[in-house]
Specification:
Helix 2 packs across helix 6 and helix 6 packs antiparallel against helix 7. The chain has a single domain, classed as Peptidyl-tRNA hydrolase (Rossmann fold), CATH 3.40.50.1470. The protein is α/β, with parallel strands linked by helices.
Amino acid sequence: MFDRFKFRQSVGAPEFLVVGLGNPERKYTLTRHNSGFLCVDELAQKHGFKINKLKFKGIIADTVINSHRVIVMKPQTYMNNSGEAVKEAAAFYKIPAEKIIVIFDDISLGVGKLRIKRKGTDGGHNGIKSIISCLGGSDFPRIKLGIGQKPHPDYDLADWVLSEFKKDEAKPLKEAIDNACCAVELILDGKIDEAMNRYNS
């Protein structure tokens, strides 16, 4: 344990900011819109760290993944203002946009599907829209987790993204989150092309 602690303290300034998007209240924990939170929680469990330090309008972990010092964040601003937290953390640690990895939900993908991109538009996602606005650009890699389309066109979008996953969606969701965690590790190692080739669907 001592050696591991020593290693975690000896890798220099943070290289990356990994951000999972969601809403902070307990009632939102298992909703579709909180897929990003669920993913970074799994990343924390997999690598043995806790996201529990209140800073930059979010809760963060300062940790090491694959020999890279990484700040892992769950913004606490609510989804529509996620960019405020991301901007503060990125500015403090001087992390450039291309090393900010954002994980979030996407209604255009089925549950269990992933899409990894180097950059892109907000695609109608308010959290991404806020981040682009606050950073002044969209050149950051992102991992989209499928949450499925609305059951029918008249279904209210807010009601859909704030609904909980169904029991039969638990297995594909878990697989997608596991794959997203592996994709994060590849991106940290500079292997985003490999991540896209392996996990995009």
